[in-house]
Design a protein that fits this description.
Blueprint (H helix, E strand, L loop, with lengths): L4 E3 L5 H9 L4 E3 L3 H14 L7 H15 L2 E5 L14 H6 L5 E4 H16 L1 E3 L4 E3 L12 H8 L7 E5 L5 H8 L4 E6 L2 H13 L5 E5 L8 E6 L4 E2 L11 E2 L3 H10 L3 E12 L1 H4 L5 H10 L3 E7 L12 H6 L2 E7 L1
Parallel strand pairs: 1-2, 2-3, 7-8, 7-10, 8-9, 10-13, 11-12
Antiparallel strand pairs: 3-4, 5-6, 13-15, 14-15
Helix pairs in contact: 1-2
Length: about 325
């Protein structure tokens, strides 16, 4: 890899884009606030619209690649030695970052994630805040949480929350009176995050374990909110949105019945966005239920959300419905 070239406030956005598009890394050696302004100016000049979902993702990947060429140096003490640079040490440390050249986009993501981690995300169904860690999907949208908060629930002594993330759904189940909740996640960062959240909330009945899908044993209720879109995940946060080959969805549905106690129920929380953008059909989803030996007992839908028209996927998102499927073996 070629060494980066050092740049400063005299670098024009169009020149920065041309160099970055050619694979030239740009190491910023000037005022930190000016670097943020340059990054914003570059972003405005890069195309963000596309006629379909596939080209939209492609344009987003190219946009991320180009913007990621603007670098800052994080020193051995995890400081950024630039005029007007914020103290990034705690944010970098919390994200598991290391000294070296870091894309400004990544550093800003660390700072933003750390702010969420410190302040927390208010969750109405809990009457409390959830504190997401870097790389763990934050429960900023409440529709899927509200479905778990209002779905019929009685006689459940033990529940599994598969792919718990921040632990928000496990916490909702515990607050609803489930005496034992086992929450799993395959990502160590998510396990650490969920454990911290249930500890903050004072929920000793929730146990968080690292596992690929199911823990040992059976439960009266098995819940999963898998990534909603089939497709390749290209970052830690992508993994909360994209499910390569529908692996998690298929694995959950295939194994759910074997982990249910007698008379138990499966809750699958899923958006129909994949259907709206042509990545999956409703008949394919229902066929997956049937192949897993599961029948639909009921479906609860969350109200649609409104989306600004500037978003390339605004039309699909304006029609999106998030559902909680109640499934029985």
């Amino acid at each position: 890899m070629e060494p980066p070239i050092e740049v400063g406030a005299d670098l024009r956005p169009e020149v920065a884009i041309r160099l970055a598009s050619q694979g030239v890394r740009l190491l910023w050696r000037d005022d930190f606030v000016a670097a943020r302004r340059l990054l914003a100016a570059m972003g405005k000049r890069l195309p963000a619209r596309a006629p379909d979902f596939y080209r939209y993702r492609q344009s987003r990947r190219n946009r991320a690649r180009v913007l990621g060429m603007l670098l800052v140096e994080v020193g051995p003490d995890l400081r950024v030695d630039l005029p007007r640079a914020p103290d990034v040490r705690a944010a970098v440390r919390a994200a598991g970052g290391e000294p070296g050249l870091v894309p400004l986009t990544e550093l800003l993501g660390m700072l933003s994630a750390y702010e969420w981690r410190v302040k927390g995300v208010p969750v109405e169904a809990l009457g409390a805040r959830i504190h997401p860690h870097y790389g763990v999907f934050a429960p900023t949208r409440q529709d899927y949480v509200s479905l778990v908060a209002r779905a019929p629930l009685s006689g459940v002594r033990r529940a599994f929350d598969i792919g718990t993330g921040t632990g928000v759904l496990a916490a909702v189940l515990a607050r609803r009176g489930v005496p034992e909740v086992v929450a799993t996640d395959i990502a160590p960062a998510a396990v650490a995050c969920a454990r911290e959240n249930v500890r903050r909330l004072g929920l000793p009945q929730v146990r968080v374990v690292e596992a690929d899908l199911f823990p040992p044993g059976r439960a009266d209720l098995v819940v999963c909110n898998p990534p909603w879109l089939p497709g390749a995940a290209r970052s830690a946060l992508d993994a909360a949105v994209f499910d390569p080959g529908s692996r998690m969805l298929a694995g959950f549905l295939t194994g759910a019945a074997a982990h249910l106690a007698g008379g138990g129920e499966v809750w699958l929380i899923l958006s129909d966005l994949a259907e709206l953008v042509g990545l999956r059909t409703r008949s394919e989803l229902l066929a997956r239920f049937a192949a897993a030996g599961l029948t639909v007992a009921d479906r609860l839908d969350a109200p649609r959300r409104r989306h600004p028209g500037a978003d390339p996927l605004a039309k699909a998102r304006s029609q999106e419905v998030v559902s909680l499927w109640r499934l029985h073996p």
